[in-house]
Specification:
Blueprint lengths: L3 E4 L11 H14 L5 E6 L12 E8 L8 E9 L2 E7 L1 H4 L6 E2 L2 E2 L3 H17 L7 E5 L6 H11 L7 E6 L7 E2 L1 H7 L12 E2 L2 E3 H8 L2 E4 L2 H6 L10 H6 L4 E3 L27 H13 L11 E5 L8 H12 L4 E6 L3 H13 L4 E5 L3 H10 L2 E4 L9 H7 L4 E4 L2 H6 L11 E3 L4 H16 L1 H13 L4 H14 L5
Parallel strand pairs: 1-2, 1-8, 2-5, 8-9, 9-13, 13-14, 15-16, 15-18, 16-17, 18-19, 19-20
Antiparallel strand pairs: 3-4, 4-5, 6-7, 10-12, 11-12
Helix pairs in contact: 1-17, 4-6, 9-12, 10-11, 10-15
The chain binds adenosine-5'-diphosphate and alpha-D-glucopyranose.
Length: 482
């Protein structure tokens, strides 16, 4: 079998709702490029991007036995950047308009859907001639794989050498469901404990994953520290402290084959640190596309791209927007999420025509266009496990204004340091955010200083190559034979 097997509910370019998709589209190929046989298992969604990828049906009725004794899955396979990608298909679970939720909330059967997925992963891996050295699962949707593996290992020597790793991309999503679903999951009764899957009388899938994994990682060193305290621990801090010996933070990278303005199929004009002119062409084209005033061509324009949720601090931007609009600046927002935030932003667009624009929706090409066309990137997150958009913004020469939390703290060197690449503020409060924005506007006015800052930001490297080495070291420290 493969030496490292990744388990994930999304993988770019096939499926993506956010950073998890980006990470899973880049980390496995980086591991693979180091000569390690790598595979990914992910759901086969009805809405996937299969452009140009040939899928082969490898099992038409892999027996899963959940939720009914005779339930089966279809498994498809494709090669992608040297690795094997397996898709677990079952129409009733994954052929839907969205992956996890609609505007009215989470799908009612999310727990069943991902119990099914995790069981399919273990079954599929067990069908292979040899076991993987590492099974590495990501977030709550894949979180039952490590506990299943833990208990299988006790009965089946096939698994004796397989190590498990869990990565937490966002502790706020734990996969918490009723006790009934614990019994359905097939985990043994002993897993229903304070040190196992139980959490205040509920099944907590992410907690189970942490409990039964050989190692646990988060996506930045700062976040690995933060989740041990009450402010960011989402109620799990006590438990996580008991598991702290196996917790590390490994910073995400950026996939510069997708996110590099020097070679970006979505941009009207390419540019780089030594040929910055193209960035101003991208700005002009973005302003036209969003019907913004052309007077903004030589004024600072701010971009925001992200889920319109409390995590991302979009309410802070909404709070200060009227004040910001009194200044000679423009703001563009791309995102979707909370209907209340969407409505407020749309109202502001009416009120501040030509200076403020919001595009509700999820559009990959616009994300690239805004990264390139904005002068300054806004990221007032309340917490940020890593954050990829600010890493992309650095590469696109769009210094971020961000809260000094989690991965934002680990990736931005704040002004006025000599080697500054952006601006940070200490707490997610509107006043502090506004002040940091004003600081950025002032710095922007010193055109030479600004171009030096852009150059520094663009030359920063957050490669997957470095992160992949850290993961490989971790796998080897666990004793995995790779
Ligand atoms: P998170 O995973 O918490 O949403 P990240 O910064 O890690 O945040 O990653 C977000 C990813 O999703 C980036 O690739 C970003 O460009 C993309 N993204 C977020 N919102 C949108 C949107 N509305 N349209 C297009 N891409 C988006
Ligand atoms: C989560 C986090 C984000 C991180 C991403 C990829 O969605 O919210 O901070 O960058 O996962 O790890």
């Amino acid at each position: 079998m493969h030496e490292v097997l990744y388990v994930t509910s999304e993988m770019y370019p096939f499926s993506k709702t956010g950073g998890l998709g980006d990470v899973m589209g880049a980390l496995p190929p980086s591991i693979c490029s180091k000569g390690i046989k790598t595979a990914v298992i992910t759901p086969f969604y009805g809405r996937m991007n299969l452009d140009g990828h040939k899928l082969r049906l490898v099992y038409s009725d892999l027996h899963i036995g959940y939720p009914w004794p005779d339930t089966t899955a279809e498994i498809y396979h494709t090669e992608y950047e040297g690795l094997s990608v397996y898709f677990v298909a079952r129409g009733e679970y994954f052929d839907r308009r969205h992956y996890y939720n609609t505007h009215s909330g989470d799908y009612f059967d999310n727990c069943e859907r991902f119990i099914f997925f995790c069981k399919a992963v273990v079954k599929l891996a067990r069908m292979q001639p040899s076991p993987p050295a590492v099974i590495h699962s990501h977030d709550w949707q894949s979180a039952l794989v490590p506990p299943y593996l833990y208990f299988e290992r006790m009965k089946d020597s096939f698994w004796s050498q397989t190590k498990s790793v869990t990565t937490i991309h966002n502790l706020a999503f734990q996969g918490r469901f009723s006790e009934r679903l614990f019994h359905e999951s097939g985990l043994p009764a002993e897993a229903w404990s304070l040190s196992g899957a139980e959490f205040y009388g509920d099944l907590n899938m992410l907690k189970a994953s942490v409990a039964y994994s050989d190692a646990v990682t988060t996506v930045s060193p700062s976040y690995a520290q933060e989740i041990l305290g009450p402010e960011f621990g989402c109620g799990l801090e006590g438990f996580l402290n008991s598991q702290a010996h196996k917790l590390t933070g490994i910073l995400n990278g950026a996939d510069y084959s997708v996110w590099d303005p020097g070679n970006d199929k979505f941009l009207p004009c390419c540019y780089g640190p030594d040929r910055i002119k193209g960035k101003y062409e991208c700005k002009k084209s973005m302003l036209r596309e969003f019907y913004m005033s052309d007077q903004l061509e030589d004024r600072p324009v701010f971009g925001f791209i992200g889920r319109l949720r409390d995590q991302k601090g979009i309410d802070l931007l909404i709070d200060i927007l009227p004040r910001l609009m009194e200044k000679d600046v423009g703001v563009i927002v791309l995102g979707e999420g909370d209907l209340g935030y969407e409505a407020r932003l749309l109202e502001y667009m009416e009120e501040y025509q030509g200076k403020f624009c919001v595009q509700i929706g999820y559009t990959e090409d616009l994300a690239h266009g805004i990264q390139a066309g904005s002068d300054i990137f806004l990221m007032p997150s309340r917490y940020e496990p890593c954050g990829l958009t600010q890493i992309y913004a650095l590469r696109f020469g769009t210094p971020p204004v961000a809260t000094a939390v989690g991965g934002l703290r680990d990736t931005i060197t704040p002004y006025p340091a000599e080697d500054a690449t952006g601006f940070t503020f200490e707490r997610p409060e509107p006043e502090l955010f506004f002040d940091a924005i004003m600081q950025a506007v002032e710095a922007w006015q010193d055109r030479d200083g600004w171009e030096r800052m852009i150059g520094r930001a663009m030359r920063k490297e957050f490669t997957w190559d470095r992160s992949a080495d850290e993961y490989i070291n971790l796998y080897r420290k666990l004793g995995a034979r790779i």
